[in-house]
Amino acid sequence: LLTAISIERCMSILFPLWYRCHRPQHLSAVVCVLLWALSITVIAAVTSLCLLSDDEHCRIALISMYILNFSIFASPMVISNVILFMKVLCGSKQRQPKRLYIVIFLTILFFLTFGVPLSILNFFQQFYSLLVSARVLFLLACVNSSINPFIYFLVGSYRRHCSLVSLQVAFRRVFEE
Which ranges carry the G-protein coupled receptors family 1 profile domain (predicted)? Predict the structure, then answer.
């Protein structure tokens, strides 16, 4: 979903006229369904290969999964967010980034900081016997998995006098923009 949201946001900023007038109505839903279907298919294939085959086939399946993960999910997300970030920096200084941009930026930042290192370690362990303990990286990946609601809450209640805003109100404020 982060990949689809990132690309969608980038397209809306780079090509606003096309985005408003010519973008297919259900494009986002179709892209999300395709990405989920690809993800589920790859996970099912890797799981079955690793359970039913020898170690070499499992290793090849895992390497293929990591390569697909980086090329189809992580790379487009990072590239589109860098483009978006550069556009916001180089654009008009009068207009401040909206809450949704802040949420997307923070989500991507935490994903890259906390989620990606474990995947990189797992990828390189397929080639080398690394002595690095994965416990810290696993803990960071767990933090990444649970941090999004807190980001939504903090950004949704930003600049409000009452800091005891419910999570539902914070979600509504963020996604209304």
Answer: 1-152
